[in-house]
Amino acid sequence: MKDPKTVSRRWFIEECAIGLGAMALSQLLGTARAATADPLAPKRPHHPPKAKNVIFLFMAGAPSHLELFDHKPQLAKFDGTLPPAELLKGYRAAFINPNSKLLGPRYRFVRAGKSGVEISELLPHTAQIVDEIAIIKSMVTDAFNHAPGQLLMNTGSQQFGRPSMGAWVTYGLGSESKDLPAFVVFSSGKKGPSGGSSCWGSGFLPTVYQGVQFRSSGDPVLYLSNPKGVDNQLQRDSLDSIQRLNQMHLERTGDPEIATRINSFEMAFRMQTSAPELMDLSKEPKQILELYGAEPGKPSFANNCLLARRLVERGVRFVQLYHEAWDQHQNLVKDLATNCRDTDRASAALVLDLKQRGLLDETLVIWGGEFGRTPMVQGGSDGRDHHPNAFTMWLAGGGVKAGLVLGESDELGFNVARDKVHVHDLHATILHLLGFDHVKLTYRFQGRDFRLTDVHGNVVEKLLA
Amino acid sequence: MKAVLLLVVSALTSAVAQDRSPGIDFVQQIQPVFEKNCYGCHGAKAQLGGLRLDSKKLAFAGGQSGPAIVAGNAEKSPLYQRIAGIGDQARMPMGGKPLEASQIAAIRDWINQGAFWPDGVGVQNAEIKKHWAFVPPKRPALPAVRNRSWPRNPIDYFILARLEKEGLMPAPQADKVTLLRRLSLDLIGLPPTIAEVEAFLNDKSHNAYEKQVERLLASPHYGERWARHWLDAARYADSDGFEKDKPRWVWFYRDWVISALNRDMPYDRFLIEQLAGDLLPNATQQQRVATGFLRNSMINEEGGIDPEQFRMEAMFDRMDAIGKSILGLTIQCGQCHNHKYDPLTQEDYYRMFAFLNNSHEAAIAVYTEDEERKRQQVLEQIRQIERDLQQRKPDWEAAMAAWEEKVRHNQPRWIVLKPEVDDISTGGQKYLLQEDLSLLAAGYAPTKHKAKFTLRTDQKRITALRLDLLNDPNLPLGGPGRSIKGTGALTEIEIEAAPAGDDSDPRKVKIVQATASVNPPEKELEPIFFDKSKNRRVTGPIAFAIDGDDNTAWGIDIGPVRRNQPQNAVFVFEKPVENPNGTVLTVYLSQRHGGWNSDDNQNHNLGRIRLSITDDDRAAADPVPAQVREILAIPRAQRTAAQQQAVFSYWRTSVPEWAEANQRVEELWRQHPEGTSQLVLQERETPRPTHILVRGDFLKPGKRVEPGTPAFLHPMPAGAPRNRLGFAQWITDRNSPTTARAMVNRIWQSYFGAGLVQTSEDLGKQSEPPSHPELLDWLAVEFMDQGWSMKHLHRLIVTSATYQQSSKVSRELLERDPFNRLLARGPRFRVEGEIVRDIALAASGLLNPKIGGPSVYAPAPDFLFLPPASYGPKQWHEETGENRYRRALYTFRYRSVPYPMLQAFDTPNGDMACVRRSRSNTPLQALTTLNEPLFLEAARALALKTVREGGPTDAERLEYAFRRCLARKPEPRESAELLGLLRRQAERFRSGEADPAGLVEKAPTGVDAAELGGWVAVSRVLLNLDETITKE
Predict the structure, then answer these.
(1) What's the mean pLDDT in B582-607?
(2) C-alpha R_g of chain A
C-alpha cells in the first residue's frame, strides 16, 4: 500500500456529501482517488475472520495466578519451605532473593461449570461463565518488570517504539465507526498503566492508528465540549463558516487535503453529540446496570466494561480497559479480595451481556495482565513478587473454544509444564481470529517489514473453536 | 536407519575425497538445491549478507562474514553450519523450512569432498553491486535543460531536467504574500506580521526576497524552529520514560541545540560535540552539555529492575538514534544478528557499540551565563581572601607542613568489610557492589526505606563502625546522595552483633558516640521532601542519626558544590564487640527523609556507601576531606599548585586566628549559584569490556570485541583516537557516504513534505530509490564543501525556483503526481503540531517570544497527570504568568503523558529517535483547535486586539484579523462570510439570545461585550481555517 504517513482521512470523497458543492468536489477529487485512500476505511483481512472486535481487560500490575486460577495443592503442602534449587537456576526476580520460601495459595478454590473447572473463591461471577471462556494456564512472557512487561503484552516488544496491538488491528481492519475513534482506551484502578501511553501508541505506524484515551466521566474525549461561552448555535454557525471558507480555499488551490479537513470538522461536530450519548449510562436498564455493578456518573471498571460493550455496538474496533491494581508485593490477601470485588462481576457481566446480544460471536474478550506472581513469598506471608515463567489469562467469544482449559503449570505453579503459550503466540492467535496471518500483517519501516509478532509466534490451534 | 546409512556413506566418501573424485555431482545434486532454496536471497536479485550462491567465483569469495565454504571441511563451513542449524546463528533458509536431511548431507559431503564446482557452471560475470548510499557522494555535473530561463540556482536544473523528461512544466512563482508566509513558517516557524508583509510588498528591489531570507535566517527564532527538528531525532523529552517517568533536567541541551543552530555551527562540529563534547581538549560546559544528545535515552527506575539491563536498553537506543538520525541507516538489526540486507554484521554493531560503552551516566551542575559570572566572582573572591592570608603569613607553607605531619597518621586502621544486602529491606532499590567494596544505590529509589546489611569479619574485637559516603559519577551531581541535588540523609543507624557461626541471637550494639566530617545546623526539610505528615522533619548533625527519632536525620547539605563532597561518620560502641571466632554485624541504615511520592524525584537516599570497622579505642570521624587526604598521600614536591591550594583551602579552616577570614569565605560560598542539573556523558577511566550479545541478550555475552567501524563503510580517519571522539570524527569524515546525505535529505523533507529519499530514516538497500539521486549527491557535496553550513543549505533551497513555485494544483497534475515527488508545484501541507500552536499565539499577539529556559507547563487538564490516567501523580503547575504563552517547543514533555494538543497533531513523544513524523488530519485535531482552552484564549485575544487596533470599520477590522492569521487580505466573498458571522453573533448577544460573558470573559471598558463576542467568534473561525495551519 502507499505510505499512509502522507495520506489522511479522505473517506470524505466516498462517504460524505455534506452540502458543500459535493458534486463539483467529487469531480475535482475523483481523479486523485489513488492518492487519497482513507487509512481507516474498513479493510478485509487475509481470511474470513471469527472476531470483528476486541475488548482487552488489561489487569495491569499482574494478578496472582496462584490465588485466582491456578490451584496448586503441592504449593500449599510445601508452604514455608525453600523451592528446589534446580528451579531457580538462571531465574531472576525483581525484588526478592529468589531463594525465598514457598507460599501456599492464600485463597480456596471451588469447582465451577460443566467441566468442574477449579477457580478461586474470589471470582464467583467468573465462575458463572467458565463454560463460556477459555482459560490459558500456561502463559509465559520474557519480562519481569511492569513497564517492559506491559509493552511486551501490548506491542510484542519490551522496547519502546513499536505499535500496539490495537494499532495493528486498526491498521489491518480499519474502522467501522464514523463518529467514534477506532481504538479506545479506558483506565481505572489505583494508578495508570506502567507503560504509559506507549501501551496504546501507534509506534512507527501512522498516528491515526493510536488509541484514544476516554474518561468514564466528564468529557469522554479531551476538548469534546464546546468551550466556555460557546453555545450550540455558535458552534454550528462557526463550523458552517469554517467549512464554507475551507471550501472556497479548496476550489482555489485544488488540494484534496482540504476536503479531508472539512470532513474532520464535520465528524468532530458529530462526535460532540455521539460521544456524550455513548457515555450516558443512565438510559441503560436497571438490570443491566446491576449485572455489571455499574453506577452512572461514578467512574469504575464496571462502568468501563459497560461502555466497552456500547462502543463495540457502535462499531469501535478495539477497546482496551486498564485496571492497574494487581501488584501485590504485600497485602496480597486483602488487596486481591478488593480487586476481585472491583472487577469480577463486571468482567463476567460483559461476557454475558455480549452473548445475550449476539455480539460475543464477533467480539473477542481478553482478560489478563503482564505476567504472574512468584510461588515464593515476598516479605512475611502476604506478598508475591513478579513472575514471568507461568501465569493465567482467559479469552472469550470471537472464535475461541468455550469451556476450554488450556495448558498447565508445574506442581508449584512456577514453570509451564504443558502447552506453553508465549505472548507472541497469543498475539498470533488473536490476529488469526481477526482474520490475519500474523506473518503477513506487516508494515515497512526502516527498510524492514515489521509485524506484531516480530520473528516469533505460532497460532495456538487448540484455542480455536 | 537412514541417518546411520548416511553416516556410513559419508565416512566412505570422505575417505575417497582426497583424490578429488567427485562423489557428489554439483550440477545434479547441489545446484538444484541452491536454486530452489537459496537464490531468492543469495542470487541475482538479492545478495543478503553479501553472499551470492549462483556464481562460482562469488560463492567461494563468501559474504560479509567471510568465506561460506571451506572446501574439504563442512564442519568449518558457515554454509553447512547455517543450513544444518549448528551454532547460534539463525538457521537457513531464513524464515523457511529447513532443508531435507538428505539435502543437508549431500551439501556436507560435497564440501567434504572438496566442493568441486565445475568451471562454466553458474552465472558468469556476476557481481555484488555496491549500494549507492555506501559510496561517498561526488558532485555531479548540472544536467542540461531546455528552459534555460527558469532555474535560479543549481537545484532547479536537477528538478527541471526531470520535469522536462516527464513532459511537465514547473508552476509559476507563488505570489509575494504567500511566499513570505511560506518562507517565514519554514525558516522561523512563525507567520509574518502585517508590517513584515507590507515591507516586503513595498520593497521593489531585485533582491527583496533574498533580503527576507537573510532577515529570517538571522532571527533567533530560526534556531527554535530548526532545533525542534533535531530534537525529534534526538528523542528529546523532559522526563525519564518507563513507569516512573520522572521529570529530568535536560533543557540546557535543548537550548544548546537552539544556540548552535543560531550560530550556524558547522554540522560536523555539531555532531562531534554531541557525540563526544566531553572528550574535546579543555571541554567547556557547553560541550559537555551537548553530550546530552546521547543521554536523551529513557531511564527505568521501576521497582525491582536490574539497572544493567536498562543501561543496555539505553545503549541500544543510542545506537538506534545514531543510526537513524546521523547515519541514516538501520543498524539496530545488529543487536541480535547480521543485517539481513545491508552488509552490517552483528560484530560491526557491537564494535561501534564499544565506542559508546565506556561512559558514566552522569548529571552535572551547569550554569547560565549570569550564574557563571556570579560563580567566577565568588570563586575569585575566595581565592583573593586566601591569597591575602598567605601574604599575611609568609611562613604558611611551613606551618601547613607541620600540620600535615600531625594529621598524616592520626587515623585508626579501618578494615573495609564486604556487605551482604538484604534484598527485601531495600524497598526495591539495588545496592550494587563496587570494586572498593562500597555499594552504589541504583534503580528504583524509594523515599523511605531501612536497608539491612550483613558484615562478616574474623576480627576478634570491634570498637567502632565507620560509614563513608562516597562520590560516584553516576549519582546526581556526583552524589554522594541520590536526591536531585546529590544529597542524602541518614535518619537512623542501628547495629546488631552476633558471634560468627551463630547469628541466631543478635544483640543490639549501643552507640555512645557519633562523629562526622560534616555537621550542618538543624534545618527543616525542603518542600520537595514533604511527606504529608504533620511532623517537623529536620536534618542536622550526626547526633540525629542515633537519637532514635525518625523525624531527625544526619544531613550533608552545606550548599552548592560543597554538598557534593564525600563525607564520613564514625559510630563508637559502648562496649567493644568481642568474639574469639569473629563477628557477624548487622547494620541498618534507615533512610526515611524523602517525600511522599516515590514516583517523583523525592528520594533523599544515600548514594554510595562503604562500611568499615576498627579495633582502635579512639576512633572518630576524619575531619580531613577525602580529596585532601588523597593529596596528602602525594609527596609535596610532586603536587601541582592546584593540589597544594586545595590542601591550603582545607587547612586554613583549622587555623584559629583566621576565623574571621574563614567566616567571610563561608558567606561567599552561600552566594554561589545553585545551577541546574543536566544529564551528560562522562568517560570512564577504566574501559568497560564490550561483548557481542547473543541474540541481543545482555545476560548472554559472547565474543569480546574492540571498538571499530564497519568494513563496508569508510575507514577511521588517520590518527583518530579509538574512543568516542574518534568515532565522532569517523562519522563526520568527508568520506562518510551517508552523514551528509542523511541530513540534506531531512532538511529537504521538511521543506517539501518528503525527502529526496522518502525513507529518510534508512538510506540502506531497502530504502526507496531517490527521486532525484544526482540532486541528493550534489546537495550533500555542496553541504560539505561549504563547511557543513546548515544556513547555507537553507538559503540555497529557499532561493531556488523550485521552492518558490505556487502550490496550486490542477486535477491533471494531482493525478499525475499526487504526492508532489516531481515538484511541478510548490509544497503545501499542514504545519507541525508545535507550529499549529505557535501560529495561534502569534496571530493573537499572546506569544511570549522569549528564547530558552526551563520547560513550561502550558494549560492542560489536571486529570491527565493523576492516576488512573497517569501511573503516578505528576507535577503540572499550569502557568499563569507570561510562560503560559511560550512557543510549543518549550512545553514540558512527559514521555508517558504526552501533551494532548501536540499529540493530536502528531508530535512524537521522545520514546525513540524520529526523523519523519506522521501527518494526520483527524476529528480530534478539529476538536482541539475548536475547543482547547488556549485556542479560545487566542481567539479572545485576537478579537480584543482587532477591536482596539484594527481600525474603525468592521471591514478594516476584519482585514486586520484576517491578515494576522493568513497574511493575505480576504476576498470579497470571504469578507461577506465572516462579516455575516460577526453580525449574526453580535446580534444574538445583543438581543439576549446568547450571553457573551463566557466568551469574552471581561470586556474592557469602552468595548461592547456583544460586539467583542462577535469578534471572538470571527477570530475563532479564522484560527480554525485549514489555510491558517497550512504552509501554502
Answers:
(1) 96
(2) 24
Chain A residue with minimum CA distance to B754? A6
Q: Would residue A97 count as lying in a domain? A: yes
What's the pLDDT at B557? 97
Which of A247, A352, A338 has the alpha carbon at shortest distance from A300?
Answer: A338
d(CA B819, CA B825): 11
Let me know: does B151 contact B801? Beta carbons within 8 Å: yes
B266 vs chain A: nearest CA distance in angstroms?
27
Looking at chain B from residue 116 to 145, which residues have their Cβ under 8 Å from any Cβ of chain A? none
Q: Would the CB atoms of A237 and B304 count as touching at under 8 Å?
A: no
Torsion of CA B372, B375, B376, B379, to 10 degrees: -160
Give the minimum alpha-carbon distance from B284 to chain A in angstroms, rounded to a whole number.
Answer: 33
Residue A32 lies in a domain: no
Is residue A267, in this structure, part of any structural domain at all?
no
CATH of the domain at A332: 3.40.720.10
Give me the half-sphere count of Cα atoms (radius 13 Å) on the Cβ side of residue B476: 24
Cβ separation of A234 and B767 shorter than 8 Å?
A: no
**Mean pLDDT across chain B, nearest whole number?**
93
**CA quadruple A419, A424, A428, A434: dihedral positive or negative?**
positive
How many whole angstroms from its chain centre is CA B353? 16
Q: How confident is the model at residue B242 (pLDDT cuts 50, 70, 90)?
A: very high
CB pairs under 8 A between A and B: 297
- At residue B32, the pLDDT reads 87
In a domain, residue A31? The reply is no
Total of domains in chain A: 1
Contact B761 A189 (CB under 8 A): no
Q: Enumerate residues 377 to 406 of chain A having a beta carbon within 8 A of any beta carbon in chain B.
A: 378-379, 385-386
CATH 2.60.40 domain residues, chain B: 415-621
The ipTM value here is 0.87
Instruction: Tell me the pLDDT of chain A averaged across its residues.
Output: 90
Polymer length of chain A: 465
Topology given in CATH for the domain delimited by B415-621? Immunoglobulin-like (2.60.40)
- Name the H helices within B62-207: 78-84, 101-112, 154-166, 176-188, 194-202
Q: How many CB atoms lie within 10 A of CB B445?
A: 25
Q: Which chain A residue shows the shortest CA-CA distance from B700?
A: A90
What is the distance between the alpha carbons of residues B647 and B629, in angstroms, rounded to a whole number? Answer: 9
Q: What is the DSSP string of B376-440?
A: HHHHHHHHHHHHHHHHH-TTHHHHHHHHHHHHHT-SPP-EE--EEE-TGGGTTEEEEEPTTS-EE
- Is B921 part of the contact surface with chain A (CB cutoff 8 Å)? yes
A268 vs B930: CB contact, 8 Å cut-off?
A: yes
How far is it, in rounded angstroms, from Cα B81 to Cα B69? 10
C-alpha span between B128 and B107 (Å, rounded): 24
pLDDT at A37: 63
Angle at B916 between CA B912 and CA B922, to 5 degrees: 100
If you average pLDDT over residues B18-40, what whole number do you get? 77
The interaxial angle of helices B307-321 and B346-356, nearest 10 deg, is: 110
The span from the CA of A11 to the CA of A26, in Å, is 11
Q: Are A394 and A133 in contact (CB under 8 A)?
A: yes
Residue A387 has pLDDT above 70, yes or no: yes
Q: How many helices (H) and strands (E) does chain B have?
A: 35, 22
The more confidently predicted of residues B4 and B230 is: B230
- Is a pLDDT exceeding 70 seen at residue A15? no
Question: By residue range, what is the domain housing residue A341?
Answer: 50-216+299-463
Q: How far apart are CA B867 and CA B535, in angstroms?
A: 26
CB contact B769 to A (< 8 Å):
no
Rg of chain B in Å (alpha carbons): 35
Report whether the peptide linkage leading into residue B868 is cis, meaning its omega lies within 30 degrees of zero: yes
Identify residue B994 by its one-letter amino acid code. A
